[in-house]
Amino acid sequence: MIWAGIGLREGATDTAFNEVLALAGRRPNALACLTAKASPALKDWAKAERLALTGLVEQDIAGEQTLTCSPRIKARFATGSVAEALALAAARKGGYTARLIAPRVTSTCGMATMALAERKDP
Question: What is the dihedral angle through the alpha carbons of 18, 24, 30, 31, rounded to the nearest 10 degrees?
Answer without folding.
Answer: -70
